[in-house]
Amino acid sequence: MQIKFTQMLSLARTGGRKMKVAATIASCGLTAVLLLAYSGGPGANGLELTGAPFNSGTCANCHSGGNFGASFTLQLLDGTTPVTQYDPGKAYTLRISMSHTQGTPQYGFQTTAATQNGDNNVNTWGLLPSGTQNVVSSGRNYVEQSQRLTTAVINLPWTGPAANTGAVVFYSAVNFVNRNFSFSGDQVVSRSLAVSENINLPVSLLYFKGAVKNGKAELTWAAATETNSSHYTIEKSGNGASFKAVAQVPSKNTNNAKYSFTDNSFSETAFYRLTQTDKDGTLSVFNIVRLKPAGNNNYTVTMATHAGYNRLIFSNDGAPQRVQLKVVSIGGKVIYAANNFANVGTNVFTLPTTLGTGLVVATVVTADGKAVSTKALLHP
Length: 380
Hints:
CATH class of the largest domain: Mainly Beta
CATH architecture of the largest domain: Sandwich
Structural class: mainly beta
C-alpha cells in the first residue's frame, strides 16, 4: 500500500513566485521526499531538506524527469585553498559550486552544519551574501536561498566553532530546476563534507562575540589554550570589508583566558574582527561580529501554514537574542506563550497543533524591548 501527498507550487521566477515542492510519503519506509523548494527558501516554510540523517532526505530517484547532468562540489576554503581541517575561531568560506552538462537550470539550495559526533547544531555562519538567508527551523540553522538563484557558485562565510567541538559535517542539497511550471523535469543532488578540528594550535579560540550595552560596543573573547601568543587586535569596519585596527590587547598565555574591549566611539552599525599574532609574527584572522545601535534594529513577524502546521516567521535584524512569543485570540485570551531563541535573520517557530482555529494576534517581543505583531488565521 502506498499513500502519496503532493503539493505543487509554481517555480521561482521574477516577482517572488514560489519554487515548487513535491512531497511523496510512501508507507514503504515512510520516506519523505521533498523538492527544493520555495523562492524564499524551504526552511522559511518549515522544510528541512539537506539529506542529513536528521532531515527528511532528498531522494532524487523519486523526482521525475530531471536530467541536466547535474552535480555540485562542497569545499571549505581558507582564503582560496581547500582544507579538510578547521581552526577554532578562524574565518573560512564554504563554497558550493554547481555544474551541469545540458540545459539552462536555475537553483535552489539548503545547507546545514552539525557535529559528526551527536549531530549537534553548529551555527557559526557569517554575514551571508545577497540572495541567501540563515533560517532557524526545529532548533537548527539552515542556510538557503531567499530568492531564485541564477549564479552557479555560492560562497558562504563560516567560522570554525569553539575548541573541542570536534569534527563537523556540512550537509547540502541543490535543486536544479527547469522552470516548466510543474514538478517534473527537475534534478536534486545532495552531498556532505566532513572537516576535522585542528587541535595542534598555539591559540584555540572559544568565542569572539559582541553586544551593545549603554550605547557602547562591548567585545568579548576567550581562548581554551594559548602558547607563544603575542597579542590580539580588534579591527573595526563600517562596511564589513575594509578594516582598521582600533585596539591591541596583550595575550595572557594561559588556559581559559578571557578578554574584553569596549568601543566608546560606537554610534552606528559597525563590524568588528579579531586577529591574533604569535610571537613569531604569524597572524590568524577570526570571525566578524556586526553590531547595531538598539534603535536601528528592524523586526517583522508573519504567520504561515504548511502541511497542517501554523508557523510564526520572525525576521531578526538585531543580534542573536531571547524573544517572547505570544498568541492571543480575537477575544483577548492568551492561548500560547513561550520564550525562544532568535538567530539573526529568519526564524521559524512552529506553533502547537492544539491551539484550535480562528483569528489571532501573534506577537514577538525582543530582548531590546520592541514588540512586533501580526493578525492571522489559525488553520487546522
